[in-house]
Structures are given as structure tokens and as C-alpha cells.
Amino acid sequence: MSREPQPCGTPAAYQRHRKNGEPLDDACREAWRLKSAAYRAANLETARAADRESKRRRRREEAREPMPCGTNAARQRHVDRGEPVDEACAEAGRAYWRERNRKRREASGA
Ligand SMILES: [Zn+2]
Ligand SMILES: [Zn+2]
Question: What are the φ/ψ torsions at residue 23 (nearest 5 degrees)?
Fold first, then answer.
């Protein structure tokens, strides 16, 4: 296997100079500068994208519509707030627990 040393003007040559304690030439320094600038820019872009995504998620959560009546989430909300539970929500809650119990029975193998 041939391991040709990278020519000057490449990041690899820059690292080789550093490792061997050789003087740095301008070509290598420039190559390294470009590489680290690109690396930083890429990281910055990744960081920005992550930031945008987390902001978007937060906004989505804030804007999340409360679940409508007739769902177990709405029933839970009524209970949490001490509101009367309407029939649609009560029925959704019963269905929810029926389903839960059924799954539990299935999971226990009975
Ligand atoms: Zn060099
Ligand atoms: Zn309701």
C-alpha cells in the first residue's frame, strides 16, 4: 500500500508539518484555514438547524390545539380542571380504559 505523503497546500500536509515540528508554509496554512473555516461553517449550519428545529417544535407545542371533547385527553383535562365531564368525554374515557384493560389482559396472556 502506497502512502504518498500529501503535497503542500493540503490540510494533511499542514497536520504533518505540525506533527513533525516542521515550519509551516503559506500553502499549507491557507489550506488549513479554508478547511477549518468550512468545518466551522458546517458546524454553525448544523447548530443553526438544530436551533431552528427546537424553536419550531416549541412553537408547535405552544400552538397545539387542546384535544376536542370525545377524547380521553379532553376527559382528563376536564378532571384536572375540576370541570364536569360531558357524556362524549366520559364515553371516550370508558373506551380508553376498556382498551387499556384489554391490552393488559392480552399482555398477561390471559
Ligand atoms: Zn506544506
Ligand atoms: Zn368534554
Answer: -65, 145
**Domain boundaries in the chain?**
11-62, 72-108
CA of 75 to the centre of ligand 2 (A): 6
Cα–Cα distances in angstroms (integers) from residue 41 to residues 9, 19, 32, 49, 56, in the given order = 20, 25, 14, 12, 22
For residue 37, report the distance from its CA to the centre of ligand 1, in Å.
18
Q: What are phi and psi of 16, to 5 degrees?
A: -65, -45
Assign 62 a pLDDT band (cuts: 50, 70, 90): low
pTM for the structure as a whole:
0.43
